[in-house]
Amino acid sequence: EAQVTQNPRYLITVTGKKLTVTCSQNMNHEYMSWYRQDPGLGLRQIYYSMNVEVTDKGDVPEGYKVSRKEKRNFPLILESPSPNQTSLYFCASSLWAHEQYFGPGTRLTVT
Amino acid sequence: AQSVAQPEDQVNVAEGNPLTVKCTYSVSGNPYLFWYVQYPNRGLQFLLKYITGDNLVKGSYGFEAEFNKSQTSFHLKKPSALVSDSALYFCAVRSDSSYKLIFGSGTRLLVRP
């Protein structure tokens, strides 16, 4: 089954404790992206990647890191999480940044 | 700079009536436009896209959208709404010269029986 998977689905952590949210796709897509969804703000792009070792900033990259060492994986790293990073996070993939397939989401709470 | 505006936080329609969810955009270069839907407790799903060609684009679940270059709009439409269409709808745009994607703030569609 073609899908985008994210782990964990739910995470509660404390300020400053490094965390990684994994994202993996099995569709051989070149394009992968991370978004955060906040009430009233819609979806905002954090980082995107057009291919292995090629990443670029979206609209809200501050406080986040990504890497694309393999085509199928695109982890999101929060080196020092803060409460304003409490949000619902989505990973997505697509061919050539056209229609995207989204993962199920990761709800992160930083206390 | 790229931007997307969805001027209505919520749209209410009766089942069987036509629906329109509005979207206007601003982008440098040629726009690539998308609509996505988010059902309660489910992920986001692609509905339709405009890349080039016919201004009227047909998508999933009977939805369509009309690209209007002069008005920089890409409104989502459906001739006859269903209660099951109730969801959160997002418009998104990117330029043909950039891979950065901008989403609107979303419009909640409520279809009453």
Describe this structure in words.
The complex is a heterodimer of chains A (111) and B (113). With 111 residues, chain A is mostly beta strands. Chain A has no helices and eleven strands. In chain A, the strands form two sheets. In chain A, strands 2, 4, 5, 6, 9, 10 and 11 form a seven-stranded mixed β-sheet that branches. In chain A, strand 4 (31-38) and strand 5 form a beta hairpin. The N and C termini of chain A lie far apart (36 Å). Chain B is globular. In chain B, strands 2, 5, 6, 10, 11 and 12 form a six-stranded mixed β-sheet that branches. A four-stranded antiparallel β-sheet of chain B has the order 3-9-8-7, with no helix packed on it. Chain B has a two-stranded antiparallel sheet with strand order 1-4. Chain B has no helices and twelve strands. Chain B has strands at residues 3-5, 10-14, 19-21, 24-26, 31-38, 44-50, 56-58, 64-68, 73-78, 87-95, 102-103, 107-112. The termini of chain B are far apart. Chain B is an all-beta fold. The chains are: A mainly beta (111), B mainly beta (113). Chain A binds chain B through residues 31, 33, 35, 40-45, 48, 50, 56, 58-59, 90, 92, 97-105, and chain B through 6, 32, 34, 36, 43-46, 49, 51, 90, 92, 94, 99-106.
Order of helices and strands of chain A: EEEEEEEEEEE
User: Which band does the percent of strand residues of chain A land in?
Assistant: over 45%
Stretches of chain A where pLDDT falls below 50 for ≥5 residues? none
Q: Indicate the percent of residues in helices of chain A.
A: under 10%
What is the chains' assembly state?
A: heterodimer
The counted number of beta strands of chain B is 12
Give average pLDDT of chain B, whole number: 94
How does the helix and strand content of chain B classify structurally? mainly beta
Total number of β-strand segments of chain A? 11
Rg of chain A, nearest Å: 13 Å
The portion of residues forming beta strands of chain B comes to: over 45%
- Cα-to-Cα separation, first versus last residue of chain A: 36 Å
The first-to-last residue Cα distance of chain B is 41 Å
One letter per element, helices H and strands E, the order of chain B comes to: EEEEEEEEEEEE
Structural class of chain A: mainly beta
Distinct helical segment count of chain B: 0
User: How large, in whole angstroms, is the Cα Rg of chain B?
Assistant: 13 Å
Helical residues, percent of chain B? under 10%
Largest β sheet strand count, sense and barrel closure of chain B:
6 strands, mixed
